[in-house]
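Appendix C. Worked example: Histone-binding protein RBBP4-like N-terminal domain-containing protein
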Amino acid sequence: MSKAASTAAHADDNESDVEETAQERVIAEEYKIWKKNTPFLYDLVMTHALDWPALTVQWLPNVHTHSGNDYSSHKLLLGTHTDNESQNYLMVAEVRLPLEDTEIDARNYDDDSSELGGFGGASGKVEVQIKINHAGEVNRARYMPQNDLIVATKTVSSDVYIFDISKHPSTPAEGSGCNPDFRCIGHTKEGYGLCWDPHQTHHLISGSDDGIVCEWDLANAGKQVHPLNKYTGHTDVIGDVAWHMHHQKLFGSVGDDKKLLIWDMRLKSFDKPLTSVNAHDAPVNSLSFSPFSEYLLATGSSDKVGIAIVVRVP
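Step 2, the predicted output written as structure tokens:
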């Protein structure tokens, strides 16, 4: 590289660093303004600093109330994204939320706990209770609808891990490794798309950066699970996958090719979807079917546009 080219490249790097620093300052200032105005916006705000960033979070369905307490206990499913030297974990945290009839003082802000709207005398309202060793960061974690103790994770490798939380200690033993109950193979790259079948137990789909949707059935499977089918309609990274909430044999996938694909498993057509829609002008990152209407779904994209789409079901 010539001296002039090297100087130009160095200047570009410096300009990029300046822009990134300026953006971070804007974000910090916006957060400060939001935090200052939380008493006017919400009845209750709870914040909890995790040890590491988390790429995934999901509420677990079970809620517990205790006689004499003014709160109910909820559970969160989380995963860590550490540096390359620290252990990653699949985690379950307890979150204490006030009951509907609990008095909340929106003017009460606790600087130590970063909580707005005090209730009762409970302390430590967010607490990690279960940590399970995970190989690499957890890109996404989702519980099985029929049994919330069964959890699938998308990994930085091409595999999808399945954990039965009831079979793992709440804190891993010193020096123990990652030991999922099942390893679902079939992908060649990591990804983020992951969805359990709401209609059939132990049945799930996954979409990855290899542009493939894999389908697995864990019923009567060994520790290593091969895909039942692979769907290859996308030409780029798959951002998300989702089952239709009303039709057992339909699911959708979206990706960086800007497309929404609807698949009908009854057709046994693994490279040609039932429907293909040019949904956005940029990569499509998320997909969700309406639980209330069989004809509606929503997509989210890097073009900053959310779209509700009417689906014609055969």
